[in-house]
Amino acid sequence: MLDVLVIGGGNAALCAALTAREAGASVLLLESAPRELRGGNSAHTRNLRCMHDAPQDVLVDAYPEEEYWQDLLKVTGGRTDEKLARLVIRASSTCRPWMVKHGVRFQPPLSGALHVARTNAFFMGGGKALVNAYYRSAEKLGVQVRYETPVDRIELRDGRFVAAIGRDGERFEARSCVVAAGGFESNRDWLREAWGRDERGEWPADNFLIRGTRFNQGVLLRQLIDAGADSIGDPSQSHCVAIDARAPLYDGGICTRIDCVSLGVVVNREARRFHDEGEDFWPKRYAIWGRLVARQPGQIAWSIIDAKAVGRFMPPVFPGTRADTLDDLARQLGLPVGPFVETLAAYNAACRVGRFDHTTLDDCHTDGIAPPKTHWALPIDTPPFYGYALRPGITFTYLGLRTDETAAVRFADQPSDNLFVAGEMMAGNVLGQGYTAGVGMSIGTAFGRIAGAGAAAASRLATARNHTAKEARHAFA
Length: 477
What we know:
Layout: E1 4-7, H1 11-22, E2 27-30, E3 47-49, H2 65-76, H3 82-92, H4 95-101, E4 106-107, E5 120-123, H5 126-141, E6 144-146, E7 151-157, E8 160-166, E9 171-173, E10 176-179, H6 188-195, E11 209-210, H7 219-226, E12 231-232, E13 238-244, E14 265-268, H8 282-285, H9 289-294, E15 301-305, E16 321-323, H10 326-333, H11 337-350, E17 351-352, E18 365-366, E19 385-397, E20 400-401, E21 408-411, E22 414-421, H12 439-475
Parallel strand pairs: 1-2, 1-10, 2-6, 10-22, 11-19
Antiparallel strand pairs: 3-5, 4-5, 7-8, 8-9, 12-20, 13-19, 14-15, 15-19, 16-19, 17-18, 21-22
């Protein structure tokens, strides 16, 4: 019988498969996507947030455990399991040599991302290169890989994994299993259920775009919760980013993100500001803006900048709407001209310009308006002016399976002895809300390796029990 079955094809699943194989287990990995689309959301990633107490090749200065923890605590608002969060943080300090062994290469951050040079290690070639390196290593080590093999159901017996049932009815038995099949961000019906209707009776989720794979439908997550697995997290919470409204429905990835929010103002379709654009550094706060836009009428907003901001942020893939006057920009964007000009005039008048420095929490702020802009507040008064339409872009959802430091799936608060979980399917244990750049890959890498090691150990134990049982039967035959 197969030792370890891994369900999923992204970073967490691959880390689990590689770790289990290194431990001597026979491993089969089932990826629902075709080979050319393998890797799930991991293919769209760029970096890994890493704890380090001293400079390490591509990582400058130091990023100690307590600072990492405080950054995570701040963005989650305390909605995190400290024990598991610190496990992830500490694991992030030791995982890179293992990743390099399996073919992953790192590089210094490119211009436009230098502000995370201290906290994040960037993958050479991005997430697609990481995924490809892991698949190459898995194949060399003898991990079996099946593409276009979605799994619809896990067969359980008293909280133990028995078999996985594929969509076509094929049955996959194994001594242990790791589920790392992603969240439900691509399941529009489930997003509707999670977000409900707004005050106009409309479904906000109908206006959401999906930054990553179309294959994360949450089928196994739903089935396991229905089968009694303990869950954690708010289904409406997710890694939700404000992205270009012209982005495709699926797989737009990193290039659709609009990174100029902190350099200007953001208005809704009534041409009103609704949140502090400069409350903190962009890597710590960028993932709140998708949810903020989702709460606006029609789930749309516009990021407005002037010529002073150009060159200070990672340029998006689509050019912004350009105008030489604010009146003309409002007309081109389809916004009410009077309120738009009024909003910008009030903002400009409220700016208290000190020493502008976008690499620090500077002293440029507003005074006397709500919402305030806490940092980087410069008047928008230098043509040409630019506007970027924003929509909520869902990366991954936070509703998941409750687990512990062993990565075991829990039933009635009891850990399964042969079913483990990693990646998006359990990220809600660490991320109750909010996000900070690179932490998703930290969670997937840490728990993927823990789950893989646990599954291999469970398989060895099952094999030993079977041998003991056979010896007992022979003794009394």
